[in-house]
Design goal:
The complex is a heterodimer. By secondary structure, chain A is of the alpha+beta class. Chain A has four domains: 119 residues, Immunoglobulin-like; 37 residues, no CATH class; 40 residues, no CATH class; 195 residues, Rossmann fold (3-Layer(aba) Sandwich), CATH 3.40.50. In chain A, 30% of the residues lie in helices and 26% in strands. Chain A is elongated. A two-stranded antiparallel ribbon of chain B has the order 2-3. Chain B starts with a strand and ends with a helix. Classes of the chains: A alpha+beta, B mainly alpha. The interface between A and B is large, with 52 and 58 residues.
Chain lengths: 436, 141
């Protein structure tokens, strides 16, 4: 199956005409009226169904051939949230039909009008309709259906179904003012200053020429002024890496009772929705500054995005985040700390609801990575009403509070997701580090 | 070929509303044609039947309403009157409207062109038979 085939789902043609309730009704009315005419000797009854008989005869005389309706729905592979996305529905094989009833997939076409009824002339038709892109993520619009009828609705085909391919709707990339990241000591190129002397663009000082200095480093103006060769001494430039670690195991909504439910998609008001929004905002903000940004899916480390720069990297991260679906099966997996590069600033986005996150953040903090733990659990939780469930929920939340406090004691910067506050906290952390 | 949403449209709800009105009129005309005087309770019952027919066109309800109209005609002092012609015309109309309502969902907006062949056939059948019935009503007792 080629990718093009995957995006275009067509349905098998219907098998043939099937009599509808209208056909059965005609038979019943004719049988009853004929029977009553014969039994009671009332010819007026037969005459009462004369227009119906003539109309039915005209309808049946106009019926031609077997129906072969085909339906194909073409969807875009991805779209921007609140952007333009069009679905093309192609109906063909309408030669023997009069009325075509199209059932739109959910979220396609005008809201509140799931059906479109068309005349069957011409026999091949294309309908371009807009798809709803108001929410991001993997959007499955479901199936479309078509049914055709002929002869005043006396005959119709069964519904022909065509499934739509899911559309990846990219989350919006907003930027916020963020502080400069600490430069990686291992880097040799980049937009950040370091204090290490080397081949860079930032001037440290000008000193006398020594054997081994490169000729291109000679500062001719200073040398002419002082009469002795002088060279420019620079600091190396370096990269700054930001690695965003996303805990995709849970999508916790404000309703605590729903935490055990299996989720089929990302709830945009839930913890994973907040985490994805935060990840994109951080990625867009730091990529705009020229930093390298990577993404690690803590549940499935091989599913991440290697650190990189530029607009394409932002698109890569958005594409990846739009495809994330919380999976309860992943809750038992062990984290892989090795997937987080050394020397990088690390942001861990998680609801911190279980103790599997502790070893990861602890290891990152021990290995001198700059770790920022962002708590993405929704603010106003709706607690259960049942006493036992309420006690259990309070216990889980108390453990979570203690877990976050322990992380803070280990030197991890712990904060709730707030773009403005995050910047302030990171700046304060940098000032403290410099003063230390 | 591209189809657009432009042009005249017929709503599925309009078809059902017409079907309900037609069913009520059919039963009332059959009652009058049979020589009965309409009682308010009977009219209320007809309204309920008409509502059921409009709500469930893909069911035996329209056939039941049509057969009930024929039985009403039979039960009374039937003759070739104007009411008889009206019953014959409405019987066909209710059947056609029920057929359309069965195909066009209530929430649908149909291109007017989609129902034109059905409308044309309805008009042909009515034009071919109703004058004959009128003549018969005028000539026969």
């Amino acid at each position: 199956m080629t990718p093009a085939d995957e995006r275009e789902h067509s349905a098998r043609p219907a098998t043939g005409w099937q009599p509808t309730w209208a056909m059965r009704r005609v038979v019943v009315i004719f049988v009853v009226s004929a029977g009553m005419t014969l039994v009671f000797g009332r010819p007026a009854i037969a005459l009462a169904v004369l227009p119906l008989g003539v109309g039915t005869a005209l309808a049946l005389a106009g019926r031609q051939g077997r129906p072969r309706p085909r339906l194909r729905v073409e969807m875009p592979s991805m779209a921007e949230v609140d952007g333009q996305a069009a679905a093309v529905m192609s109906v063909s094989g309408l030669e023997a039909s009069e009325i075509v009833v199209l059932r739109m997939p959910h979220g396609i076409g005008p809201p509140g009008a799931p059906y479109v009824v068309l005349a069957a002339d011409p026999p091949d038709q294309q309908l371009t309709v807009t798809a709803d892109t108001s929410s991001w993520g993997m959007r499955d619009y479901g199936a479309a259906g078509v049914r055709v009828a002929t002869a005043d609705g006396l005959f119709a085909t069964p519904v022909v179904i065509a499934h739509t391919a899911p559309v990846r709707i990219l989350p919006p990339a907003r930027t916020v003012d963020v502080p400069e990241l600490p430069a990686r000591s291992a880097g040799q190129v980049g937009a950040h200053r370091t204090r290490r002397p080397g081949d860079g663009s930032e001037l440290l000082d000008v000193r006398e020429f020594r054997p081994g200095d490169r000729v291109k480093r000679i500062d001719w103006r200073v040398s002419a002024r002082r009469g002795v060769l002088h060279v420019r001494h620079t600091a190396i430039d370096a990269d700054a890496d930001l690695v965003i670690c996303l805990d995709t195991r849970y999508d916790l909504t404000p309703d605590v009772m729903s935490w055990h439910d299996r989720s089929s998609g990302v709830d945009q008001g839930g913890s994973l929705g907040v985490a994805i929004g935060a990840a994109i905002t951080l990625a867009a903000s730091y990529l705009r500054l020229g930093d390298r940004v990577g993404l690690v899916d803590l549940a499935v480390p091989y599913r991440g995005v290697q650190p990189g720069t530029g607009v394409r990297q932002l698109m890569r991260i958005r594409w990846h985040l739009a495809g994330i679906v919380p999976d309860a099966q992943l809750r038992r997996r062990r984290f892989d700390e090795g997937s987080v590069p050394r020397g990088a600033a690390v942001v861990v986005l998680s609801p911190y609801i279980d103790d599997q996150i502790d070893p990861l953040v602890g290891t990152l903090a021990r290995t001198h990575r700059d770790v920022l733990a962002i708590d993405v659990l929704p603010d106003a939780l709706r607690m259960p009403t049942d006493r036992a469930e309420l006690a259990a929920a309070r216990l889980v939340l108390a453990e979570r509070t203690e877990r976050l406090a322990a992380l803070a004691r280990r030197g991890v910067l712990v904060a709730r997701w707030d773009p403005g506050l995050i910047g302030l906290l990171m700046r304060r952390r940098q000032r403290l580090r410099r003063s230390a | 070929m591209n189809s657009t949403a432009g042009g005249r449209v017929v709503s599925g709800r309009d078809v059902r509303a017409l079907l309900g009105l037609g069913s009520a009129a059919l039963l009332l005309a059959a009652l009058m044609g049979a020589g009965y005087r309409p009682h308010p309770l009977v009219i209320a019952a007809f309204a309920v039947v008409a509502a059921v027919v409009a709500a469930f066109p893909a069911s035996p309800a329209p056939a039941a309403a049509c057969v009930a109209a024929v039985f009403l005609l039979l039960s009374g002092d039937i003759g070739f009157t104007v009411w008889f012609v009206v019953v014959a015309a409405l019987l066909h109309s209710v059947h056609v409207l029920a057929g359309l309502a069965e195909i066009i969902p209530a929430g649908a907006r149909a291109e007017a062109a989609a129902v034109v062949p059905t409308g044309r056939r309805w008009l042909q059948a009515q034009a071919a038979t109703v004058p004959i019935l009128i003549v018969l009503a005028a000539l026969l007792p």
